[in-house]
Write a structure and sequence with these properties.
The protein is α/β, with parallel strands linked by helices and 212 residues long. The protein is 42% helix and 18% strand. The model has no long low-confidence stretch (mean pLDDT 91). The protein binds guanosine-5'-monophosphate (5GP).
């Protein structure tokens, strides 16, 4: 059974380019959430630090972690494996610390299906428009535009999974989006009782516009 003193789990997912990583950082800094650091078989990007952004491991090690039942969830995303290790997360939650996860819809489904004894709040972050998403995904040259076109196809598939989330938020202005997420978390935890903070009809209209 979870108790008042247990931590909570907050999951943020989004199609690529919606600005989720910055939101996760803000939630960690301003609300004192611990970020769950995933394992991945993806190669580090130039600015990324092993043990801070991800635990970068090879396929063999990843397989061993699967066999050892060490993952709370894992999934293949864009041809690489990503997984959340169970032990550090459960230890944090048990000691009353809140944990934030930047994982995709597959991992979110797996975590939700496990009936974990901690409160879970899930958010799906969307871009303000298709045009702005395309701009965020592409740079100046033609090669980037081609990659961005491919990513847009992934976007149309990813966006369908919004229905699996507690809340969908639109990341137009970063601070507004952070404040909305923060308010919804406080509301869910019973710290505030504001009404009409979440407009599902508006979200549905937005998703229709993004999907067509
Ligand atoms: P990136 O390679 O750009 O850092 O992340 C690619 C995608 O993998 C993002 O959608 C991110 O949320 C997702 N991801 C990162 N870590 C995990 C994880 O541990 N599990 C799952 N299921 N997805 C993850």
């Amino acid at each position: 059974m979870s108790s008042q003193n247990d931590g909570i789990m907050v999951i943020l997912s989004s199609p690529s380019g919606a600005g989720k990583t910055t939101l996760v950082r803000l939630l960690s800094e301003k609300k004192n959430f611990n970020i769950s650091i995933s394992h991945t078989t993806r190669k580090p990007r130039s600015h990324e630090v092993n043990g801070k952004d991800y635990h970068f491991i090879d396929n063999k090690k990843f397989e061993n972690l699967i066999k050892g039942n060490e993952f709370l969830e894992y999934a293949k995303v864009f041809n690489n494996f990503y997984g959340t290790s169970k032990k550090p997360v459960l230890e944090l939650l048990k000691s009353g610390k809140n944990v934030i996860f930047d994982i995709d819809w597959q991992g979110t489904k797996q975590i939700k299906s496990q009936n974990i004894n901690y409160k879970i709040i899930t958010f799906f972050v969307l871009p303000p428009s298709k045009e702005i998403l395309f701009e965020r995904l592409s740079n100046r040259d033609m090669k980037d535009k081609l990659i961005a076109s491919e990513r847009m196809k992934d976007f149309y598939n990813d966006v369908k999974h919004w229905v699996d989330y507690d809340f969908v938020v639109i990341n137009d202005d970063l601070n507004d989006c952070y404040n909305e997420i923060s308010g919804l978390i406080d509301n869910q935890l019973g710290f505030t009782q504001s009404k009409n903070v979440y407009d599902l009809e508006n979200i549905k209209n937005h998703i229709n516009k993004l999907s067509n």
